[in-house]
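Help needed: design a sequence for this.
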């Protein structure tokens, strides 16, 4: 005899992942050194974006830094990665 479980089965997407490690990097932006702390996946994504746009990582960060308004640099970098992913997802043809 099987007893019905009221507990929802755990799906792999429901299992919490350990947080990504935060890495601190020093870059020269507009002639001065600055330290930026971001999770490792964001650093990887920024490097990919810089490569696609034929910029150095420091060049991409400087461009984002110049354009940000009222938000911290780390947040501006995360938002840039999110916006890039959203743009690329919107440009992809729909799956049939």
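Sure. Designed sequence:
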């Amino acid at each position: 005899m099987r007893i019905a479980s009221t507990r929802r089965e755990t799906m792999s997407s429901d299992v919490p992942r350990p947080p990504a490690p935060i890495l601190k990097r020093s870059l020269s932006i507009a002639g001065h050194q600055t330290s930026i702390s971001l999770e490792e996946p964001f650093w990887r994504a920024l490097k990919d974006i810089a490569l696609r746009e034929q910029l150095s990582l420091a060049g991409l960060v400087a461009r984002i830094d110049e354009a940000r308004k009222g938000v911290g640099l780390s947040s501006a970098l995360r938002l840039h990665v999110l916006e890039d992913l959203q743009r690329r997802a919107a440009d992809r043809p729909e799956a049939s």
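The chain has three helices and two strands.
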